[in-house]
């Protein structure tokens, strides 16, 4: 530990502060710089302080597919999973093969891991050691980051070591770091003097220069030189890169072992997590008659430490040196022996058979594809990806190779491995012309683009691929066309290409196919209004029979007709279904649409609540496009409420998250800016922003009344009146009460004739069904009340303005409430100033937890519904009760009644 006093002190401080908070720390440095030694020192100190220690390590040539790191970390404690909420328990048991196979969402699995660790930490503090993150499988690395960011309120310390050179997986974890640099010359000389007091000065100086301040290099280079009797510096070999020098030093030590001992270590290096019995059987198959003697020989050489009868390599470079130094035939023989040992375990056996295969072999590729199905079925999508990618490597036929790469890409997408998706899609596209495989690849890449910043194929390319796939597989073609219809709505709304897509789908699909209904609703709602309306209402009569996917499709169709109430019902069904099933990515997408629906209907509190949860889950999933969408919902609610700081911060976050936003996000951003400016009285800015939205086929009708108000305030009535009239004529066939109200209000604001103005205002206020949109009714009454006051009809004005103010105050729409109060004062009514802020303020997540608890749900049930650990739910309730001034769950219902 020469020269590491400061770093030791920092780690000890983390351990000593465990009663106050947990934490995670990435220790970064070059190979051999002392990361493992530092962590070992912390491990000993933690054990002395009563910690339980769990460890896992990445392996450079790890022969395990999938979540090997996670299984290594938790295999000794997974029996405690029965204390978790039901869905989280099932996810962990499936992954470890201890229960029925399911394919849980990665977030469900991550929360289950966190919950299990939190439970353990309730019994005694935990030290988690994750070594060599750069070699860890990506799904485990993602979970390490997820857990590490949530340790503050736990009795858990996590130490992660990572190489400073090469790929940098730690950069994505968002955790604090401790860099380890080289030793100074004095520190290095002190270490050498302790290791080899009799070393000659010229030899010492040469070793110091060769080692470059690397502690492991100082130890191993000096040991290797002295072992070979090189006492003269002039006889040293030519300088090599430090990593190669270290690996050569270890290889020299391995070469001095007996051949059986080398074979024994090769088997141990070939499979992480091998048990003593498995290692013994594999060794005997390889011709090693006395495995216990081989273990003892390797221990005496200082290469390994025995842990429960299995050799643990003293440094990862030793494992790498053993595997790299073995001849190709010996490596093949080792993997064949391991495949025989694991013959009853299809996944492991297939992997080792593939490692022992030279050239291409369709039978082994099929075994790997079967293994992928097993891995995916129990939730190990990262493992499924690796099996399929290796199966593709062994596939003799290019089309089979491409098909397996396509399946691997979809597994990677579902596992959240965005970079791997692009790599696999690129590789598959290069080796096939199969139209079905190419269509599947395009669909995977395009779906990735909905949740990340990936570009994917353009609309013309997707249409071409769908056309080519029709003859070979109509279902694949139909699915791709359906996505193209959605893409047209998101990226190029109103474009002629939408009509082309719809024509081709109508030729391909029968009238009753739900995909066709969604496409018609998305691309041409006015043209098919009667058919869409009838189909949606018929399908929603029995909500219990609706799948989440179909409920979401019906909601989309209803919104295309601007029936936001019916759509809201469908979104609620879809959200509940996805919440029950644990399909978190689909849940987040659906919640964002539900949040927007609530915003349009004027339910600001629930729009903020649902949008906030979607933002949190999208962040946890690492899906920037969804996070950006959630930030836009926050911005819209804040614009209505006049919270300038939140609007500005949310819009800035959107710009950082998505480099090239699609049309939908652009329109939502512009709309938010327009509402913000209108509420703040910046009418020129509001008019410019809303003018950019009013032409959008979906969003335009929703801003038409706001545009009219901005135009009136800035004195440009004629142009706005033409726009309002044109939009009204376009959407008239839809028969939407909301749109009729907004068009009438806009025309009332802009009318030059008093009789026409009053007729429009009254019609807007009294529109049948308008009560479903309370904020818009209040906006109408505010506009009408102001108009009445300016015509000295004071009594009537007061009634309208007072009603509007009450709605605005209840919704927290402060700019509009302030405007209503100003109009009331001008009408001679004494109005109180702004309401005092409530003493009780719950965060969106606290409010959601409080609501579920008030319904009588347990902490574990709430945790399963919100994808949180149950101890996190308990911690929130612990904070909620004092805020509400209550002491029991029984009092929750009444306490939160006036907060929502």
Provide a brief overview of the structure:
This protein is mainly alpha-helical and 900 residues long.
End-to-end distance:
58 Å
Shape: elongated
What is the mean predicted local confidence, pLDDT? Answer: 88
Q: In the CATH scheme, what's the topology name of the domain at 582-588 and 597-826?
A: Serine Threonine Protein Phosphatase 5, Tetratricopeptide repeat
Main β-sheet, in a few words?
Answer: 5 strands, parallel
Helix-strand makeup class: mainly alpha
User: Which ranges are low-confidence, i.e. pLDDT below 50, for 5 or more consecutive residues?
Assistant: 230-235
Helix content: 55-70%
How do the strands line up in the largest sheet? 2-3-4-1-5
How many H/I helical runs? 45
CATH architecture of the domain at 582-588 and 597-826: Alpha Horseshoe
How many strands in all? 7
Q: What is the CATH H-level superfamily of the domain at 582-588 and 597-826?
A: Tetratricopeptide repeat domain
Query: Rounded to an integer, what's the Rg over CA atoms?
Result: 33 Å
Q: Can you identify the CATH class of the domain at 582-588 and 597-826?
A: Mainly Alpha
Question: Strand content of the residues, in percent?
Answer: under 5%
């Amino acid at each position: 530990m020469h020269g590491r006093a400061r770093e030791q002190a920092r780690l000890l401080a983390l351990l000593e502060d465990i009663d106050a908070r947990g934490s995670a720390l990435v220790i970064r440095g070059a190979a051999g710089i002392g990361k493992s030694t530092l962590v070992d020192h912390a491990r000993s100190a933690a054990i002395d302080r009563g910690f339980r220690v769990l460890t896992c390590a990445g392996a450079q040539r790890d022969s395990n597919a999938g979540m090997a790191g996670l299984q290594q970390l938790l295999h000794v404690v997974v029996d405690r999973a029965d204390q978790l909420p039901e869905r989280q328990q099932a996810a962990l048991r499936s992954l470890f093969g201890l229960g029925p196979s399911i394919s849980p969402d990665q977030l469900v699995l991550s929360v289950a891991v966190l919950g299990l660790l939190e439970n353990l930490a309730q019994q005694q503090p935990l030290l988690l050691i994750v070594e060599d993150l750069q070699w860890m499988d990506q799904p485990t690395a993602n979970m390490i980051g997820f857990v590490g960011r949530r340790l503050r309120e736990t009795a858990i310390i996590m130490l992660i070591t990572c190489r400073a050179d090469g790929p940098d997986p730690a950069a994505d974890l968002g955790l604090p770091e401790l860099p380890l640099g080289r030793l100074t010359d004095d520190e290095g000389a002190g270490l050498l003097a302790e290791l080899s007091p009799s070393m000659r000065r010229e030899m010492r100086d040469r070793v110091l220069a060769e080692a470059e301040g690397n502690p492991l290099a100082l130890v191993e280079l000096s040991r290797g030189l002295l072992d070979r009797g090189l006492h003269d510096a002039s006889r040293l070999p030519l300088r090599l890169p430090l990593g190669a020098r270290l690996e050569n030093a270890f290889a020299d030590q391995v070469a001095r072992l007996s051949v059986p001992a080398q074979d024994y270590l090769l088997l141990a290096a070939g499979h992480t997590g091998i048990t003593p019995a498995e290692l013994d059987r594999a060794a005997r198959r390889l011709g090693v008659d006395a495995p216990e003697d081989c273990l003892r020989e390797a221990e005496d050489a200082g290469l390994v430490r025995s842990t429960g009868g299995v050799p643990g390599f003293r440094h990862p470079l030793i494992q790498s040196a053993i595997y790299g130094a073995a001849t190709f035939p010996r490596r093949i023989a080792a993997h064949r022996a391991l495949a025989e040992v694991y013959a009853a375990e299809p996944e492991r056996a297939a992997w080792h058979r593939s490692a022992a295969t030279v050239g291409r072999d369709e039978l082994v590729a099929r075994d790997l594809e079967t293994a992928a199905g097993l891995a995916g079925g129990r939730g190990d999508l990262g493992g499924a990806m690796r099996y399929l990618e290796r199966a593709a490597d062994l596939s003799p036929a290019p089309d089979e190779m491409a098909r397996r790469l396509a399946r691997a890409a979809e597994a990677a997408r579902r596992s959240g491995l965005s970079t791997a998706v692009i790599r696999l899609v690129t590789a598959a596209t290069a080796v096939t012309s199969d139209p079905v495989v190419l269509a599947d690849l395009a669909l995977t890449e395009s779906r990735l683009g909905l949740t990340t910043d990936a570009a994917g194929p353009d609309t013309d390319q997707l249409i071409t691929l769908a056309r080519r796939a029709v003859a070979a597989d109509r279902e694949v073609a139909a699915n791709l066309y359906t996505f193209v219809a959605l893409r047209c709505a998101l990226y190029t709304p109103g474009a002629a290409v939408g009509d082309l897509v719809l024509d081709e789908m109508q030729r391909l699909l029968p009238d009753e196919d739900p995909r066709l209904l969604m496409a018609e609703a998305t691309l041409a709602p006015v043209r098919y209004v009667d058919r869409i309306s009838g189909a949606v209402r018929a399908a929603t009569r029995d909500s219990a029979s609706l799948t989440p996917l179909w409920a979401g499709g019906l909601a989309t169709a209803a919104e295309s007709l601007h029936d936001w109430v019916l759509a809201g019902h469908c979104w609620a069904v879809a959200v509940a279904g996805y919440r029950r099933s644990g399909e978190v990515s689909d849940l987040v997408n659906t919640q964002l649409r539900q949040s927007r629906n609530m915003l349009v209907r004027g339910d600001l509190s629930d729009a903020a609540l649902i949008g906030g949860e979607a933002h949190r889950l999208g962040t946890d999933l690492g899906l920037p496009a969804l996070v950006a969408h959630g930030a836009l919902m926050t911005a819209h609610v804040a614009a209505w409420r006049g919270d300038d700081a939140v609007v500005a911060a949310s819009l800035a976050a959107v710009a950082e998250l998505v480099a090239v936003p699609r049309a939908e996000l652009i329109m939502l951003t512009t709309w938010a800016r327009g509402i913000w400016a209108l509420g703040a009285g910046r009418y020129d800015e509001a008019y410019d922003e809303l003018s950019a939205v009013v032409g959008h086929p979906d969003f335009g009708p929703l801003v038409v009344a706001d545009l009219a108000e901005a135009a009136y305030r800035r004195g440009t009535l004629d142009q706005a009146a033409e726009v309002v009239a044109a939009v009204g004529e376009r959407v008239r066939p839809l028969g939407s009460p909301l749109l009729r109200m907004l068009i009438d209000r806009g025309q009332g604001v802009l009318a030059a004739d008093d009789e026409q103005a009053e007729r429009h205002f009254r019609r807007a206020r009294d529109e049948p069904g308008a009560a479903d949109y309370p904020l818009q009714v209040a906006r109408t009454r505010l506009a009408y009340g102001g108009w009445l006051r300016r015509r000295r009809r004071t009594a009537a004005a007061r009634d309208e303005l007072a009603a509007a103010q009450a709605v605005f105050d209840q919704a927290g729409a402060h700019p509009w409430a302030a405007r209503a109060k100003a109009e009331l004062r001008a009408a001679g009514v004494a109005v109180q100033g702004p309401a005092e802020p409530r003493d009780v303020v719950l965060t969106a997540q606290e409010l959601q937890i409080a609501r579920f608890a008030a319904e009588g749900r347990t902490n574990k049930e709430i945790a399963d519904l919100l994808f949180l650990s149950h101890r996190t739910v308990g911690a929130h309730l612990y904070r909620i009760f004092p805020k509400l001034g209550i002491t029991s769950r029984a009092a929750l219902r009444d306490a939160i009644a006036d907060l929502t």
